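Record type: ASSEMBLY
Status: queued
Input:
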Amino acid sequence: MNTGFVQSVRALFALKPKQKLTTQYLFSLLIAVTLAFLVGAGLMLLCGYDPITCYAAMFKGALGKPRAMGNTLAKTVTLCLTGLAMSVAAKAGIFNVGGEGQLFLGALAAAVVGARMDGAAGWLIVLCSLLAAMAAGGAYAWVPGALKVKLKVNEVVTTILLNSAAIYFCSYMANGPLKTADRGIATGTDSIASYAVFTPLIPLSNLTTGVFYAAGIALFVWYLMTRSTVGFEMKITGTNARFARYGGIRADRLALWGMTLSGMICGIVGMLEVFGLHHRFITTISSGFYFDGMLVAMIMRYQPVGVILMSFFFAILNIGGSAMELSAGISSEVLLIVQSVIIFFMAAEGGISEMVRTRSAARRLRRAARKAEKEAAV
Amino acid sequence: MSEIFNIQLVQTTLRTATPVVLCALGCLMSEQVGIMNIGVDGMMLMGAFFAVLGSYLFGSWVMGLALVMVVGVLLGLFYYVFSVKFKSDEFIIGVALNILAGGLTVFLLRTLFGVKGSFSGPGIVPLPTIHIPWLENVPVLGPILSGNTLLVYVSWLLVLVSWLFLYKTPLGFHLRASGEAPEALRASGRSPEKMKRLASVLCGVLATLSGAHLSLGYLTMFSENMSASRGYVAVACVIFGGSNPPRVFLAALLFGFIDALGMRLQKYIPSDVTSMAPYVVTVVMMVIVVLFRRSRLAAHAKKLG
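Status: finished
Output:
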């Protein structure tokens, strides 16, 4: 790439309004969160619960004990990784809404490979399962990616539909051909040898050594996105595909790679769930983890630091919810409502703040006009 | 074979296709004005819940449908305000709406009825079944065309009405223009925003009605997450039906057929596989339609030289 091209790209970026996490954006986020909590409190009051008790129970349930803290952190890691998967695809100019299915397939592949390799060295089992999960998730993302790139089939719809297909497929495998012979397991595959699975970092919590793998992946993706040529090309493609093509970047191939990489990350998330928590594939391995992570990434505009913070916050809502339900008695779904209110406001942030700005500008103008009139009268 | 391919299969096809047809008609209105509405799945779920709620509270299906329509109008306005007025990403709003619907219905289910999972009971009045006297005794056609629940007929009627509305009335013309050429519409002295609002409200009403069919026509109960991604299937139907009501109707019927066939094959094939089929077939159909369009374009180009 010659310098002239780089310069013209810089000029292009200078023209585009910056989509960064500005102070104003963080301020709006604070307002959105407060409003969402107020909506939640209103609902609780309507149903005859005390909001303060409920929210206290939620925070205590998520952060009160080391074990709860560990679970919250583990959830944060899951959300961050799924958010990262979404970001990778989005930055390459393609939407991956099918992460849930890729996660399921990755988990199934990892569990099957892990269980079949019983007896091998621990690190080898982990490595092979990781590769299997990446292959399964990546391949399942490649299909809609290729359909989009080659045939212009809407990837949002295909990936959503493929989610359901993958989940049913995994459920069939776990209930049928791959069902474990272990007693007391209703639906699930054979378990992985105990020496190969991740060990908890905090006793009894879900936070395991898997977090280091997650960190490694995150670091790799960060390097890829910000320090490599591929990342640079992805950035341009995601910003302006036509311009990128003019500059000699093969946007199609990049989008396909972004999608596949995104699927691989989702597969790894599934593998981490298997090795960290369940030690086998079960049909309830994920309950919309990908969708949560995806929304976190979208409302934080794919900015890493923002995604991590927001993931932590959503993890508190998620882990604290069940504790709140147990101790305060209110259905934990109220927190789902709080979550969606935050998303609504953050999605509308640009429009609302623009409206407020134009209104206040108009008011200022009117005031100035009135002042001028008065002065003229005097 | 005759155990699987018989009149009952056609009956089940029509019944299972109906929610997708209604939802797809709504989605189509939205698509025509250029708003991609992923949130129809959540709207369907809300419709299913409020239909049961209305029917149970007032002891009448009419009130159930009335409540559903009110909720539909509100949801449509909500979608309009966020996507057009606040210029938010339609896709985020749609997904968030689906999450909201999942949370809100379960929350209300637990707090209002005190049950988990599903709610059914003698208090819920289902939609009436309509028997057409002179048609009922005709072989083959009789059992297929007569004895369906109300919304099945309504959905057929609406396919025709929405086609007439979109392509044969001035209002429909303006509605389509607001999606294709909003500036031209504005230049002609009409507001594209108003058209978008109308389409969004229609979409909300139709999508929630599809939910009402699910919970009051198809079954007489509400269960958590009962829309089961049918809203997304409806979006897919709209895409490969090219936003044209009759074509979208055919696409939805195809989905219903696969779904019904799967249900009847459950005796021989595990239910997970049969449940998987409609989604896979829908994706394959999307690909086939694109290939078909492409080859037709190529043939056209050849003819022109």
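Annotation: The two ends of chain B are 49 Å apart (CA to CA).
Annotation: Chain B touches chain A at residues 38, 82, 85-89, 91-93, 95-97, 99-100, 102-104, 106-107, 110-111, 228-229, 232-233, 235-236, 239, 270, 272-273, 275-276, 279-280, 282-283, 286-287, 290-291, 294 (CB under 8 Å).
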